[in-house]
Amino acid sequence: MSATTWRLTADGLSAHGDRLALDGVRGPVSYRELAARALAVSSALADLGVQRGDRIGLVSAQRAYDEPVALAAVLLAGAVAVPLDAASPPRRQSAILRSSGCVALIHDDAGAHALLPALQPAVDAPLDRPLAHLELDPDGRPSRDASPRARAHRDDRHAPADADPARDAEVACVLHTSGSTGTPKAVPIGWEAHDAFVSWMMALTDLGAGDRILRAAELTFDLAWFDHLAAWRAGAALCTASRREMAAAGALLAAVDRLRPSIIYGVPSLFAKLLTALAPGARAEHDPRTDPDASAASGAFLPATESGSGRWHSAPRVICFAGEVFPPPLLAELARRAPEARLFNLFGPTETNVCTFHAVDRGRLDGTSELPIGVPCPYADCRLVDEQGRTIEGPGVGELVVRGPTALGGEHATRDCVERRADGLWYFRGRMDRVVKIRGYRVDPTEVELALVQLAEVREAAVIVVEHPRLGAELAGFVVGRRGPPNVRQLRQRLSDSLPPYLVPRTIAALGELPRTTTGKIDYRALGS
Questions:
Q1: What number is the average pLDDT over the span 427-439?
Q2: Cα distance between residue 94 and residue 298, in whole Å
Q3: Between 177 and 505, whose confidence is greater?
Q4: Which of 74, 139, 178, 186 is the most exposed place for a label (fewest CB within 10 A)?
C-alpha cells in the first residue's frame, strides 16, 4: 500500500470536529463523538486480545448506530471487518465466521437475543473454544451488562485458507458472495481498492462536508462501503434508517423524507420501493395518528404521498444505482419523480467494485431503450476477450476482464458478457456462467441446487431465474423426489434454515424427471419455458 493511500484514522474522524457524523432516530452524533465511541470500542477489542490484521465479525439485527460505530472501531484498530447478514441463518453466519478465521464477533443487544443462542454453539464447537464477542447498545457503546465470554484466540488449524498476515494488515474487509461450491466465496478488499473507488466517487458526485448520504445497502454489499468511507472521509453526514424502515415502501419513503439525504447509492429495487410509495393513492405503512404501534422510527404520515404528488419531499441531488439492471420504465419514472437529481448507472462485481459507469442522459430516457453500463472508470483497465482469451479491439462482444487497484488479485475475469459498440459505450449482455443478481445480491443457482439435493427427500434439483413482473429476478426450483413427489412447502421451509431469504426459491415444483439435452445435461431452457 502506498504511503499516500487513504485509510480511516481517529485523527481523521476527530478533525471533522462538531460536524454531523450520524443522523437517525437515535439523534445527531458529531464526528468528535463518533471518534470517541469508536475508540472506546477499539479499546474493548484490545482488552479482548484483538490485534492488527485480525478478522472481526460484525452483525447488527436492528441496524442502529452500533453498526457504523463497530465498523469504525474495527478499522481504527487495524483489524479486518467481516460483515454478516443479520437475515441469514445462523448456520451460514457461523460458516463465514469459521472460514474467515474470525477471532471475535461484535453484535448489537438485539443480536444477542436473536442470533447468539444459535450462532455461538455452531461456531464454538468446530473451533474447540468459545468465540470472543462484544455487545454494543443501539448508540454504539459497549453494553454494561455484556461481559466478554472469552479472549480472542488464534489457532493455525482454523486460519482462513486465504490468510496472509502481511496482506491482511492492508485489508479493510472481507465480503462474501454466493459460490458455486455451495459455500460463500470470500472477497478480501484492501485499503488501496477503497481509496481508488471512494476518491473517484467523491469527485463524480461532488461530495462535500455539507452532504447527507443515506446508509442504504447492508455492510455485506460493497455499495455500503461508499456510504461509510466517503462520508467519513469528506466529513459528510451518514443518515441511518432502521431495518424496519428499509423493509417497506411507505416506511422507507417516510425515512428518506425525514433524513433528507442529498446522495443515495442503492440497488434498483430500493428505488422501485420508493416509487411504489410515491404512486397515486399510496400510504405510509404506519400512520402515527391511527396506528398506536407505530414508533417514531416509522416516520411521519405523508399526505403528499397519498395525493400522488410525483415527488418526495426532499429529493436527493445525486442518485447512483448498481447491482442489477434497472428496468427502463422504472428508471424513467424515477427521473420524473426526482427531476433535479443527477443519475449514474454503476457496474461491476464485488471482485472489482465499480469498473464502468454511465451518466444518465435524461433526454434519452424513453422508458424502453436499454441503458448502457457506460465506459471504464479511470482506475479500471477494462478489456473484452473472446473464447480463446484474445483481446477484442474495437466493437465486439466478449468477457469483461478488469485490471487495476480495485480488482481482486490485480486482474479479474468477471464472467460478464459485455458488448462494446462503435460509439465507445459498453452494454451488459448477461452472465457467461449462471451467476445472477437478485435484489442486488449476487446469486449462484448452483448453491441452491446443492442445498436442495442435500435434503433427504430430493434426488435431483435444478434452479433457474425467472422474471417477476413487479419483483424482478426471482429463483424457481424444480425437484425430483426419491420416493415420489416431496412436499415442496416443507422444502422451502427447510431451505430457509440454511440459506438467506434471497437464496430460497420463490416457487418449487416437483417433477417426475428433469428435462435433459441430447448430451445428458439438464435442459434449463426447457425448464424456463
A1: 85
A2: 32
A3: 505
A4: 139
Phi and psi for 194 in degrees, rounded to 5? -60, -40
**pTM (2 decimals)?**
0.83
CA distance 124 to 147: 17
Fold of the domain built from segment(s) 195-370: Rossmann fold (3.40.50)
**For residue 467, pLDDT beyond 90:** no
Mean pLDDT of the chain: 86
Cell matching residue 384: 473484452
Strands (E), 171-219: 171-177, 185-190, 212-215
With beta carbons less than 8 A apart as the criterion, state whether 101 and 50 touch. no
Mean pLDDT of the region 255-284:
86
10-190 and 195-370 agree in CATH topology = yes
Pairing between β-strand 185-190 and β-strand 263-266 as defined by DSSP bridges:
unpaired
CA distance 372 to 476: 28
Say what the alpha-carbon torsion angle 381, 384, 386, 389 is, to the nearest 10 degrees. Answer: 0
Quickly tell me which residue has 424427471 as its cell: 513
pLDDT of residue 310 exceeding 80 = no
Lowest mean pLDDT among 272-281, 475-484, 495-504: 272-281
Average pLDDT of span 40-48: 96
- The CATH code for residues 444-528 is 3.30.300.30
How many whole angstroms separate alpha carbon 205 and alpha carbon 341?
Answer: 11
Assigned CATH for 10-190: 3.40.50.12780
Rounded CA-CA distance 52/168 in Å is 9
Q: How many CB atoms lie within 10 A of CB 147?
A: 7
Say if residues 477 and 461 touch (Cβ distance below 8 Å).
yes
Task: Say if residue 293's pLDDT is above 50.
Answer: no
Which one is predicted more confidently, 108 or 433? Answer: 108
Give the whole-angstrom CA distance, residue 448 versus residue 182: 8
8 Å CB contact between 230 and 236:
yes
Contacts (Cβ under 8 Å, ≥6 apart) of 285: 248, 249, 250, 251, 298
Distance of CA 41 to the CA centre of its chain: 24
* Residues counted in the chain: 529
**Vertex 270 angle, CA 315 and 359, to 5°:** 65
